Amino acid sequence: MGRGEIILDVRNLRTHFRVGSDDLSILRGVSFTARQGETLAIVGESGCGKSVTVHSVMRLLPKNGRLTGGQILFHDNGRTFELHKLEPFGKEMRSIRGRKIGMIFQDPMASLNPVYKVGDQVAENLLQHFKLTKHEAQRRIVEMFASLGIPEPERRILDYPHQFSGGMKQRVMIAIAMICNPDLLIADEPTTALDVTIQAQIMELMGKLKKEQNKAVILITHNMGLVAETADEVAVMYMGRIVERGLVERIFHNPSHPYTRALLRSVPVLDHGKTERLETIRGATPSPAECVTGCEFANRCDFMTPKCRSGIISAYEIENGHLVRCVLFEGAKELPNE
Ligand SMILES: Nc1ncnc2c1ncn2[C@@H]1O[C@H](COP(=O)(O)OP(=O)(O)OP(=O)(O)O)[C@@H](O)[C@H]1O
Ligand code: SF4
Ligand SMILES: [Mg+2]
After folding, report:
1. What would the pLDDT profile of 123-169 be if each residue is shown by its tens digit?
2. Helix or strand holding residue 67 (H, E)
3. Nearest in space to 256 (alpha carbons), one of 206, 227, 297
4. Which class for 336: exposed (0-12), middle (13-18), buried (19 or more C-beta within 10 A)?
5. 253-271 in b/e burial notation, b at 16+ Cβ within 10 A?
6. How is residue 160 annotated by DSSP?
7. Sequence ranges of the chain with CATH classification 3.40.50.300
8. Which atom of ligand 1 is the closest one to the Cα of 237?
9. 77 alpha carbon to ligand 2 midpoint, in Å?
10. Which fold has domain 6-100+182-335?
11. Closest ligand to 44 CA?
12. Is the overall model pTM greater than 0.85, yes or no?
């Protein structure tokens, strides 16, 4: 089956954060695409740069962060927007963020304003992008709440965030992200705080959006089971770089980077009702302030050789569209722009 059109094309993205007198390199050249009708999953241990990647795309970095290189190209009906060049809070970026690209943030508690009714918070996004009467906006929000499984939506739109449980707050966040019917939905750990049944419902909803409406989805998650079930393509991140990227079947059936293999071995399994880790990845990720020469994974890798410590590690294409950044694949086609 053919693949969907590319809607987001991120090339060699670099982001720095200033912390005290340090200028930390957090994204070290990240490239990926999101396609219509497909889900790209971004995976990797905590702190590898998943959220910073999507905040960079949305141009929502905190004050101490800045883009230092690369391109973020967003394709919309024959037009290409260079998001990396836009003013983060300028007119063009505001017409794309929330309208064309919706985002479910990792922390719903921090993202909802405690002093506004939830319905008004959803309406704010809707009315910023569409000319609607208050009544029409309300009708759409009630419909959206109902489709997200929020009971008694007419009444609940008038409630404040503290009157909602964690799972319900997450649904409100999803409503904010989806109310303008965006072409690309970015979901940063959308199900972590939810129980298994609600998780399944939300994933089903995102699956429908992708299949029935041909939307593009970027899903950030720690849950490899979810990745196997829902993703079309997977990008594995480690210390601000994509170390492996490929179609989901390739990543699960032929994981090739030592980090991906370790990550898949450490998938938690449910054993007699208890969650168990099969194996954890030994060692720890170096801190972003550490100056690592060569492969950032070397201190944890069973295959490390002196070559791994000598300079920038190239990415190789080991099969059509399957990229691995590791010296073990030196015989394969080198990808100099990755
Ligand atoms: N505002 C900030 N100032 C300085 N460093 C930051 C800031 N935000 C994030 N970082 C650093 O950037 C790196 C990547 O963080 P990020 O939040 O993207 O990780 P993540 O992959 O989303 O992790 P998690 O799975 O825990 O959500 C981390 O080292 C983090 O400490
Ligand atoms: S480049 Fe070397 S250290 Fe890094 S993952 Fe490959 S084998 Fe391991
Ligand atoms: Mg995160």
Report:
1. 999 999 999 999 999 999 999 999 888 999 999 999 999 999 888 88
2. strand 65-76
3. 297
4. exposed
5. eebbbbbbebbbeeeeeee
6. -
7. 6-100+182-335
8. 21
9. 41
10. Rossmann fold (3.40.50)
11. 1
12. yes
